[in-house]
Specification:
Strand order of the largest sheet: 14-26-25-24-15-22-23
Helix content: 40-55%
Distance between the termini: 44 Å
Structural class: alpha+beta
Shape: elongated
Radius of gyration: 34 Å
Length: about 750
């Protein structure tokens, strides 16, 4: 499966949700394509394909054959060309709108105010031609290309409605006698054809502008990436473009500049503002050997970085890519919408023909004008765009807003699933606590031999457990102990480590390891243990064979925001459980301080997984929150997995949701945002469906027998334009919600 490639390509010349469905169909038919998805709101095609059977150029060629286009350049050029193409498209669309209205206004005056002047019809025809050819030509071109492929889109509806109105008017202009001979008035509807184009173009312009605002969050993230880097090569300092950087380059960063790469300080020291990535407001001191991240800001001294990740491999680039993919993903509800938009245009065409036939059957030749105008109004008022924009625009704003608050949501499925969560399972260390443990006390069982601390240090230096770092710091920095060279080392999952030194077996870990070795505590140690655990300290046991040598109390302070976060989660109606590998008394003390009633102590990774499974069997929707390492099994099983990270955690690639800052208050904020976004999607879909369900019958003339109301095609086109814009504006309202 190593030849499987997943890429996202910006799409050009896409006008509506029907266009998005057409592109999906075209690409899915290509050999080697596993999956293809087009997001109309982001104008993005995501393709998963077998790289040995297909190349990007072939995908572009297939899309071009359907009347659309792709940008397939390298990432840096892709973004640059997309921005350029979007600006060019917006300027062109604005020019079309201005041009269409310049001709439409005199057309309206001729048709409504000066309709009796000589050659009025001929003048209207001459005014209509530039609008249809120059400013509305893209509709006819798109409709023709779709027709050749046996498909349809919004272009089909606009092209048909305006063509019918124009051709009927041309006939009446040159052959008015045909109607006079039958006792009927030869009306012309040039203004309807022209104003329909003007309104649709205006709606598209407003829609493009509003859609641009939905991607403000991703643009802000991209703005963190500097364009130029200053490197030292062959002893010479030079400025190069960011995409020319290479791993192991020495990059010079001056005060106030953004750091262009991930790497470590090779020379100098400073304070770095990492708030834009980690969310931590206090600048972090950086010394030689410390890691720094692209997009963060150097505040004081100059330094030189040795690059370890460049370009698309930096943490910032990964965050941007994750947010883009999440914004481009489809929520489960979108599948229903896609099925509707697939048949939308053919169904509307059928309703339009049926409307015309019914009018003619009911009213005969005298109702021909009514029949034609009603059929045109049906074509114009129907709007697949409102349906196509309802879900993706809300997702773009919701996921973008989350990213701006340091909450990374992996995809639309995760966002939708979060609102259903009714139980949150919290790991203790690093989630509820600071994750910065420190030794709070030592108690040796008896006489302490010199090499004991050296063996303990050597063992903990190899351990990956969070508490091991506290012991290492205490022994190395405070007691100035040096490690011995061990004969062997073995990690025992969920329990600790065992090592051998000079023919003896030593062990360090939890009380589970204490039981495995049948080591016992003295009365003094038991009393001290109760005291340490009642204060919420974690306990590490150190022994040799069946003899307990020492107990070490390790304190990990509860985060200041954890208590408030637990209260907020309860306010949202969510139950809370805590899991920890610590003993019962320690777990009870921490849970008591946080006011958490349900907790599980002595939990191994398998125990955590089993606890999540039990909750799910009870019908609960479970969110597991952990650090992504010893909680990985539980995270994988949970309905929603949330990783606590600070920008460098690999859990960002695994978990559904990553909280980039250590502030647990982001968790209830994420759940609330999920509810707001899904509520917005439902609102958008409701109004988009209701608009079409009500608008199409009114356009067909269903109210005419009751109150004489017949919808003018010009008003129908205005309503159609407004429907798409209103959906996007409603999505943007999420930005204003707390």
């Amino acid at each position: 499966m190593s030849n499987i490639s997943k890429q996202a390509f910006p799409v050009l010349k896409m006008h509506c949700a029907g266009c998005a469905n057409n592109i999906e169909k075209i690409v899915k038919q290509l050999p080697g394509v596993i999956d293809a998805s087009v997001n109309f709101a982001t104008n993005t095609l995501s393709v998963t394909y077998e790289a040995d059977k297909l190349v990007a150029g072939e995908i572009k060629a297939a899309v071009l054959s359907g009347g659309y286009d792709l940008i397939i350049e390298e990432e840096a050029l892709k973004e640059e060309h997309l921005e350029e193409a979007q600006q060019k498209h917006y300027r062109h669309l604005r020019a079309q709108v201005i041009g269409a209205w310049i001709f439409s206004v005199p057309m309206l005056l001729l048709s409504m105010v000066f309709m009796g002047i000589p050659y009025s019809s001929e003048m209207q025809m001459l005014l209509a031609l530039p609008v249809m050819i120059l400013f509305g030509g893209s509709f006819y071109e798109g409709a023709w290309k779709q027709a050749r492929l046996g498909r349809s889109s919004m272009d089909t509806l606009v092209a048909l409605s305006t063509s019918i109105a124009f051709l009927f008017s041309v006939f009446n202009t040159f052959y008015p006698s045909f109607w006079y001979d039958r006792g009927l008035e030869p009306h012309v509807y040039y203004e309807a054809a022209v104003v329909i184009i003007a309104f649709v173009l205006t709606g598209k312009l407003l829609e493009e502008r509003a859609k641009g605002n939905t991607s403000a969050a991703i643009k802000k993230l991209m703005g963190l990436q500097p364009k130029i880097a200053r490197v030292v090569r062959n002893g010479i300092e030079e400025e190069i473009l960011i995409d020319q950087l290479q791993v192991d380059d020495l990059v010079v960063v001056r005060p106030g500049e953004q750091i262009p790469v991930d790497g470590s300080l090779a020379e100098g020291d400073s304070f770095v503002d990492e708030s834009m990535i980690s969310g931590e407001p206090i600048p972090v001191e950086k010394k030689q050997g410390d890691k720094v991240l692209a997009g963060t800001i150097n505040q004081r001294g100059s330094f030189i970085i040795r690059a370890s990740q460049v370009g698309a491999e930096t943490v910032l680039a990964r965050i941007i890519r994750m947010v883009q993919e999440a914004q481009g993903s489809k929520a489960p509800v979108q599948r229903i919408v896609d099925k509707v938009t697939n048949v939308f245009v053919p169904v509307v065409l059928g309703i339009s023909i049926l409307t015309f036939v019914l009018w003619m059957v009911i009213g005969g030749a005298n109702y021909f004008s009514h029949a034609m105008l009603s059929a045109i109004s049906v074509l114009v008022i129907a709007c697949p765009c409102a349906l196509g924009l309802a879900t993706p625009t809300a997702l773009m704003v919701g996921i973008g807003k989350a990213a701006s608050q340091h909450i990374l949501i992996k995809d639309a499925v995760a966002l939708e699933q979060m609102r259903k969560v009714n139980v949150v399972v919290l790991d203790k260390t690093g989630t509820l606590t600071e994750g910065k443990p420190a030794v709070a006390g030592w108690l040796w069982a008896g006489a302490q031999e010199v090499h004991y601390t050296s063996v303990l240090l050597a063992a903990e230096l190899k351990s990956e457990h969070p508490l091991a770092g506290a012991i290492v710091q205490s022994l190395q920095d405070e007691q100035k102990v040096t490690p011995v060279s061990l004969d062997s080392f073995e990690s025992i999952t969920g329990k600790g480590v065992q090592v051998s030194y000079q023919g003896k077996m030593y062990w360090v870990g939890s009380h589970k390891l204490l039981k495995d070795y049948n080591a016992s505590l003295t009365d003094v140690m038991s009393s001290a243990l109760v005291h340490y655990e009642s204060e919420g300290n974690g306990i590490i046991y150190f022994g040799c064979g069946s003899e307990l040598l020492a107990i070490i109390a390790v304190a990990d302070q509860i985060k200041p925001t954890s208590i408030e976060a637990v209260k907020e989660l309860r306010r949202l109606g969510i139950d809370i459980c805590m899991l920890t590998g610590d003993g019962h008394r320690t777990a009870q003390a921490v849970a008591g301080k946080l006011n958490i009633d349900r907790f599980v102590a002595d939990a191994l990774p398998d125990d955590k997984q089993e606890f999540v499974r039990e909750l799910q069997l009870q019908g609960k929707v479970v969110a597991m929150v952990g650090d992504g390492i010893n909680d990985s099994q539980a995270l994988a099983l949970a309905n929603v997995s949330v990783a606590m990270g600070k920008g460098t955690d690999i859990a960002m690639d695994v978990a559904m949701v990553t909280l980039m800052t250590s502030d647990l208050l982001l968790l209830p904020r994420a759940f609330e945002l999920s509810k707001q976004t899904v509520r917005l999607i439902h609102q958008n879909l409701f109004w988009a469906f209701i608009y079409n369900l009500i608008g199409i019958p009114i356009a067909a003339g269903i109210l005419f027998p009751f109150n004489g109301l017949l919808l003018n095609p010009m008003l129908a086109s205005a309503a159609m334009a407004f429907s798409s814009v209103s959906v996007v504006l409603n999505s943007l309202s999420l930005k204003l919600q707390k």
